[in-house]
Amino acid sequence: MKKCDPVIISAENYYGPCHNLNDFLEKKDGDEIFYNWSDHLNGLSKGFVYMLKCRPGLTLTIARHYPSTALSIPFKAGTNFVNLFFILGEGSDLQHYSQEQETTYCPNHGYLTYSHNLKGGLVHCSAKPFCTIGILMEPWFIQRFSQGIEEGFARKIKEMLDIKNNDGYFCCPVSMTPSINIRLHEIMGCTYIDVRRRLFLGSKALELMISGFDQFNADKAHTGSCFDLASDSTDFVHKARDIIISDIKNPPSLTELSRMVGVNRTTLSQGFSKVYGVTIFDFLRKFRLEESRRLLQAGNRSVTQVAFEVGYAQQRTFSREFKRYFGNTPSHYLV
Asked: Which pLDDT belongs to residue 223?
């Protein structure tokens, strides 16, 4: 079957008031905008984009796309910012194109990019839904952030920003580590609706940025607390938490988990309770229930499907624990 050419639609028509990212970077701290394009594209795509000016030089973007066909979206204005972004979903690839080159972005991957006054566009290669979460950083912000940091990371930042001398395009893949997946989950699961939303998302944007940039830091010898250098390292506790969250449907047993983080069961259990204030079992149970509420609110799943996805073998057990925890039945949260 012959592949159809993508439908061309301008960035102004697709993203509406959010199409010029350079303009939004000039907004006041705390400014935010939400734009739903579902009723404006004649059925070509549904979705929304949310943008938050977290602090000077730093903006968070969240977008959900439900295209009904392949789309090509050219941008008239060149950009001048660093973008750390992640693509979530089971959709096909995205392609960034410019006068000089074409770059393919794969689903469930992250990328650190920088372009200086380079005009181009983005192609949604098929009619499959996907979500993007990105952090836009102005060059001066990333330069200031990299000062005094490990030499290898500083070199990478200098290499990236040096492309401004020839209007080029920089792209470096970023692995979707358990730490990054946790931050993305927390951002997409945000339930605040007032000023707390801006505070919460702003803090998570910084955490996501640090988790992403940490991959360029070759020197990770020190893993203990910077405020208590005499205490035993609790790095194994945070590693255990990341392992649990990365597969809540089929988590390892306590014995397996302790072996994976390199300590015995007693040390792991005591350390986990000391750091997080709950047992490993209670932490997993609460995380499963919070995730199940997010899935129910997202729609397109039955209570039984959600129960199975978060690791419950029986819906009856899931419903009982859900009501005990939230005070309402799971069906109360169905969209």
From this structure: 45
- In the numeric block, which tokens belong to residue 1? 């079957």
State the number of CA atoms in the 13 A half-sphere of 205 facing the CB.
25
Confidence of residue 105 (pLDDT cuts 50, 70, 90): confident
- Residue 260 CB burial class (10 angstroms; 0-12, 13-18, ≥19): middle
Q: What is the pLDDT of residue 32?
A: 92
Distant-in-sequence, close-in-space partners of 331: CB < 8 Å, separation ≥ 6? 303
Q: Where are the alpha helices (DSSP H) in the chain?
A: 11-15, 21-24, 139-146, 151-161, 178-188, 195-213, 235-246, 254-261, 265-276, 280-298, 303-309, 315-326
Cα separation, 170 vs 139, in Å, equals 13
Evaluate whether 7-188 and 282-333 have a shared fold. no
Q: What mean pLDDT, rounded, does the chain reach?
A: 82
What sign for the dihedral angle of Cα 130, 103, 12, 57? Answer: positive
Structure tokens at 244: 């649990």
| Residue 118 or residue 134, greater confidence | 134
Q: Which is the CATH superfamily of the domain at 7-188?
A: Jelly Rolls (2.60.120.10)
Q: Are 84 and 110 in contact (CB under 8 A)?
A: yes
